[in-house]
Batch of 2 targets.
Target 1
Amino acid sequence: MPEIQSASGDAQLADESFRTIGKTYVDQPRMTASQVNVYYGDKQAICDVSLGIARNEVIAMIGPSGCGKSTFLRCLNRMNDTIAGCRVSGTIRLDQQDIYDKRLDVVPLRARVGMVFQKPNPFPKSIYDNVAYGPRIHGLARKGVELDEVVETSLRRAGLWTEVKDRLAAPGTGLSGGQQQRLCIARTIAVSPEVILMDEPCSALDPIATARIEELLVELRKNYTIAVVTHSMQQAARISQRTAYFHLGHLIEVGETTRIFTNPQHKLTEDYITGRFG
Amino acid sequence: MSVAVLLVILLGLSAFYLGHARAVRTVGGAHSIRRLHSLPAYYGWYLALWVILPAGAVLLLWGLFQETALTAWITASLPAQQQALPAAELGLLINDIRNLAAGNITAGQVTPEIQAAAAQLQQWQQTATLARIAVILALTSLIGSLAWRAIQPEMRARNRVEWIVQALLILSSSIAVLTTVGIVLSVLFESIRFFHKIPITDFLFGLDWSPQTALRSDQVGASGAFGAIPLLAGTLLISGVAMLVAVPIGLMSAIYLSEYAHPRLRQVAKPVLEVLAGVPTVVYGFFAALTLAPLLRGLGESLGLEVASESALAAGLVMGVMIIPFISSLSDDVISAVPQALRDASFGLGATRSETIRQVVLPAALPGIMGGVLLAVSRAIGETMIVVMAAGLSAKLTANPLEAVTTVTVQIVTLLVGDQEFDSAKTLAAFALGLLLFVITLALNIVALKIVRRYREHYE
Amino acid sequence: MNERQQAVYATVQASLRRRYARERRFRALGLGAVILGLSFVLLLFTDIISKGYSAFVQTYITLPVYFDPQVIDPNEQRDPAQLARADYRQLVRAPLRALFPEVKNRRAKRQLYRLLSTGATYQIRAMVLADPGLIGQTRQIALLADDDVDMITKGHVDQATAEERFGADYRSWLQQLTRQGRLHTRWNIEFFTAGDSREPELAGIGGAMAGSFYTLLVTLLLSCPIGIAAAIYLEEFAPRNRFTDLIEVNINNLAAVPSIVFGLLGLAIFINLFGLPRSAPLVGGLVLTLMTLPTVIIASRAALQAVPPSIREAALGIGASRTQTVFHHVLPLALPGMLTGTIIGMAQALGETAPLLMIGMVAFIVDVPNSPLDPSSALPVQVYLWADSPERAFVERTSAAIMVLLAFLISMNACAVALRRRFERRW
């Protein structure tokens, strides 16, 4: 398997085996990435990936460790900006607007494209303050009652309200792992984003907590567009409508989840799904 | 001294050689050293350690106590009327005798008695030097021969040597404990004697400090007043000014350097700021007294303010500058210990960098920063040279930083530097202040270290 | 975009200006703090250097000195004892009188003689004692000028003040000397070799440097082995028990005990209890040893921790005892780190003043000490002593002494950094 390096990047672009199979663009896209390349210093992490994300769909990104799926996800709300030496080329559009445009501001972008991380990372503040953080910094709700309402709605949507309504002042770090992750989801949806990016949201959780989050995802799909990076093929199969398979920085195959899992076109996809590696 | 040291070294070397040789000989030559329990060198070490350690101990103890003992004897040999002299004069007399014996010039008149005493002292010193060598030789030959006999093929020389080495290591680490004990005892004993003269409540709660005890009881202010409150107030005032300078600047520069600065700026600025921590305090004191204080006075005059030439402000400002790197490097540690995940979460919600720092990073780092600030306060309270050179001597209860105040450390130095009479309340007061200082800084440190440790555990 | 989302987007857009303004303010505040901190460093160094650099040169007045046999050796015996006793003041005064014949009255003459330092007399005496053949000859000799002349020449005292303080004549004398090319400055080597003096132009840091050297020597000889041994014990052998905890707590707390308290310990224990001599570098070294031990121990422990456990396991695995493992394998690897810590501890000790005041190393000592038992001062203490002196010339000398002190400290720290770089290992 060739190593991904900028020096050999051009050669790989021409390599037939890495041309994406399946329909990369969608009819009603919320987000569209075209020919995205990401470099960490000299190393190329993403090679020429194009992918559309439709409204109100759950798209799962799968692939072996280090395949670039998380990197790609972090491009979608420019979280990679915080990493020193990271360079992104190509275009990513959110509703026709190029998010890597120099004039574009990341603050409103990230308010529109929220993110949930691999490890639950509640702030060391109260549960209430965790959820209220986003609305407060963006000035979405000034008055106490208004803010209370946003907090309650968000916690309800995240399926956490009944569990924490009596102890909103307790520290968010005191919750169980699954509850913490739902708190993080509540925190994200409190600013009413259009897209939610989730980077392996269940990898640090036990099976029961995982099941709750998965249920929640299905529920959230009605209002939000969701992109999930996952390690677990079963999870991808359960929650997503479409699936994208990444391999060594290339997007190998994308399509309806059912088709990908039943009838993979590419040899690599098939090997991964059948468990030859991963 | 050097002859005895040389002797011990020579004894050690020969003991190593002898032990080594004997071990080889007991098994009948170099070809069968495998019959020895340990390598022959360990037998050498074994004998050498048993020679050097007792001899070294004798050397050390002798050095520590010879002069004290000789002084006591020479005092006892003086005529009765001279022994009855006051302590200070007797001390001078003894000094003269010593100087005469050492062949130096004497301060006082050389009377026949002094001459005789000096001759006596000289003789004793020579005897002592010889006696020390004799004792060392006797002791080493006694212990050495016992250890020599113990060298047998089946003796576990390595284990024994390692046991001695271990004991030495333990002894070395115990010095830390001994130091603390030494500090506590040395300030405590003198303090207790002080509290016999001045009630402890007067010391702790007294509002008046004027340690100038008069020579005659009929003079004004003969008693002297030993209330520590004005000193503590002055200390706190100066430390407060220092913290007002150090905490904002130190914290903000730590934030800027760790969260905003270009790596190249950080690479240059961090070590340059650290330079401030390495500058000796006496240099800061010089700067405060000769540059900043006149500057502030001039500035105050032009504004119509009266600034004392030894104002708390000048001392405090400079002390603050000294503490900046301390605060900034501690804050830097604490801030970088805040997990990146929390920053990501905040950025992911669309927070700006400053919102993230102020509302997520700083609250998370607060306990650690508090601990660091407490450590800095303890350092400010114990700082001596800056205040000795730039703060005043007058004990005043004031919150005005433009006035001159004095501090605990300044008073300790003032009371103990120069001619001192032992047992006077004045001298003993310095130790009581030392005890106070030790207790306060110790308490601050314990609390601060506890906070910092708990904070570290929280994020590990 | 649904309604809520649109509202959010609008609000966020509207808030941006305000939020970015706050961001800029915060950032500017941080940059300001850094710049302020850096400018303090700059200010401190420029202040010290601008005050002190001129102390490295010294003003001399070149005069034709006639080594008058009548004054030096009227009996022509060339007896060294007689030569040493002669009144050399006359020799240095005569050329001054010759140069300024107009000075007649006694007060003015005394003023005139004060152009030269008392050191000039010693200078002539030393020359005669070294070479009695000079007697009867006339030589142009650069004689040490008084500190006031030195200060005026270097421009530290402006003309107006000088005239006010020393009178108009004084100024014209100096002007005449300058015109004749008799007034000049040269490299001040005496500053580095001489002991303390009440006369600024004679005062040097030689004695203080020797005192600091002996003090540090004692400190190094004690704190290095003891600190390393303690670190080895705590890191490699100590069982987890209360005694070990006690030691650890003590080390951590000692690191934060004010230095002056160590001075009190030295005074009470080493001087009053053991009767060791006051003002001696030996006692200073003992006190500083106790003070720097925590630094050395903590650094040495860090160095030991940096040695990976695999090295120990490898040694133990081939049958070495614990002691052998530590002394043959771990210690050599940790030694550079330990030395770095020791150097940093020594730098700390070199700059320390307060405990030395407590044990009497503040006495006025003219002689350069020759052993750790001679009374002496130390470099930072010398700074403290001189800083108290009112003469302008002492301000210059103090700053110069600080420059020397800082030069030592910076080179020690540079050594430590270099050592760390050189031996830094990534496992």
Target 2
Amino acid sequence: MQASPSDRPVLRLSGISKSFPGVRALSGVSLALYPGEVTALIGENGAGKSTMVKILTGIYQPDAGTIEVDGQVTAFPTAAAEATAGVTAIHQETVLFDELSVAENIFLGHAPRGRFGLIDKAAMVAQARALLARIGANLDPTITLKDLGIANKHLVAIARALSIDARVVVMDEPTAALSYKEIEELYELVERLKAEGKAILFISHKFDEIFRIADRWTVFRDGELVGAGMMNAVDEAQLVQMMVGRPVDQIFPKRQHSLGAPVLTVAGYCHPTEFQDINFTLHMGEILGFYGLVGAGRSEFMQALFGITRPSKGACRIDDRIAVIRSTAQAIAHGIVYVPEDRGRQGAVKGLPIYQNVTLPSLGRTSRHGFLRLAREFALARQYTERLDLRAAALDQDVGLLSGGNQQKVVIAKWLATRPRVIILDEPTKGIDIGSKAAVHAFMAELAAEGLAVIMVSSEIPEVLGMSDRVIVMREGRMVAEFGKAAMSPEALVRAAAGIGERAAA
Amino acid sequence: MSRALKSREALLGLAIMLLIGLIATRFPDFVAPSNLANVFNDTAALIILALAQMVVILTKCIDLSIAATLALCGMVAAMLDVAGVPMAVIVPLAMALGACLGAVNGLLVWKLQIPPIVVTLGTMTIYRGIIFLISGGKWINDQEMSPLFKSLPRMEFLWLPVLSWCAVAVVAIFAVLVGRTPLGRSFFAVGGNAHAAVYTGINVGRTQFAAFVISGALAGLVGYLWVARYAVAYVDIANGFELDVVAACVIGGVSIAGGVGSVGGAVLGALFLGVIKNALPVIGISPFWQMAISGTAIILAIAVNATEGRSRGRVILKSAEHVA
């Protein structure tokens, strides 16, 4: 499927493989970037796009493969040599220094030197002003970076790319956090960079922008190259098909789903900035999937439902009684628990032993007259960790010493020990190996079979299709589609999430 | 807590024993039971405040106003005594005042989200200023205080003075509070991982507030004990003592980053400083050396912490999980 290159690529990677313990992130993929052209890199979450970017920018070294610059095989870049290799990346959340000025950010590490090797500040500001003018950015180089919005930070990052004379610019979902007008300005900038002969790798989930600015496409799926070619020879449907169309190679647990009574009804939940008009009813024994692109407002809504933030409008009923949830403690008391996405930050308390992590939300039940009973704590922790088949030497071992998969089990055990009615799992299998994934899926099915209502926030299409009884798709803070088991298809989910075509009906 | 901490406390205990043994080889009188009891009595205030500071540090905060709170409560206790208020009222009032001063710190940290170091640096100066305002900068001395006010901390029963028994009682209460109550557990959770604590239904700000109130109340108690023991109250009593208190915590293995620490560690940290402080004059070393020695002890303690953290490493191998 490789399109014949119209001219020589400035950068060509071939046969790139990269494995992490338990996961094969990339296997034998190739990627070519051409001067003055935008190549769109397309793929689901977990397809290997980010790994590729990290190899390009020298953060990871690949296990196998070659890199050619101008047709010459060279060494892979290291992070320090990234600038000299001429590759620079602009991330979703740009990695710059908030407390430094715009000019200092642009020239950090290669500032113009004056007498005695000191930084020539006047020259630096003047050069920065020239660079910013070149990309049409009307910014004062002496302003502190933290005073700029994300769009302007992107401009600074791009000016930095020009200052090191980068020949390849990687843009990793640069529009994810931008407003409509800022996105238009970014497109113009991409055109300018093309005119300067830069090769651009553009990563995006939004098909409209891919068709708007890309010249070539490359699709990854599950760490493999599916295809590459020219944009003018392909349509949306074909790209979506390549992106998701795969044999169902993961086996999901078979479930006899018989839905019970409604447990949770959410009516008209709104937030001033994060989401709007969320309505649904969740039944006992149901697994309700929430699908959407990163930043669609799914986790934000869940956090409001769990009492971490407060909705501006809307009501929540549990067992047909109004439930007022103003704090996480109240949510837990109402039988709602939330297993967050970021285990490191929001899940386990490192430094505390396993059993104390498990009993943390259940201290009321493990204490008598206000004093904790260690025997009860151990009994409770043992009951739920055994159920999850936790591999650990002892329950008084520090959680921080466990592997990611086992930490996840401790976090889930912690929530089950509160005997919840509704469990919200946010990206439950993100970043864990395939074996642990299957265990988590089997466990979710088991919970639903026991009558628990499960909400699963997931960006992985196979998981959403394989596990959910019903899927709600969110885009830009709103529910845009709802699919029953029969109506779900990978194409329909991607189309709804990316905003292709019309609003789909249930 | 974890085995590493236990061994760490054993190490500190051993260091104190070694220190005492070393001194005993040349000054056998130092290890006489009566002298050791004196050393303990002299360290009692530090022990109580180190425990108070420990719960604050566990929640990833710090209370720099602890000595100023002590001084203000001590001054108020002395003024109440001069005014003829009975002892049964003075001590509870001093503790209540301390708790209120701690609550001010706690509320500023909880409701306004001001960094604790800034809050308590500010209140430290304010509380000292209040002492000056209410006392007019004057001392309350020996002759003005009632005999019972002065003698209570020195009264002996079961071979130890009341001051020492206060420390023993606080240690016992803290062992239960920290190890066996939901509040004690939430101190560790809040400091260990504030985000995770939120998700488990713990109110992070309220937990930090509780730590500041406890710290203030104990500073109030020590305020009375201090003024009564030295039989004098003035603006600058216990000036700079907050640093000794933090030092005792750090030497005792309480992590400034929050979430790590133990009652035993904080007590041993305080005793370590107490032994050095009492031994140096005996050996005939200038008190300035005391500062250098406690400074060295702090850096050593932190170095031990850092290497412990490093040697662990990540468990990547499945087979290593059981070993860990």
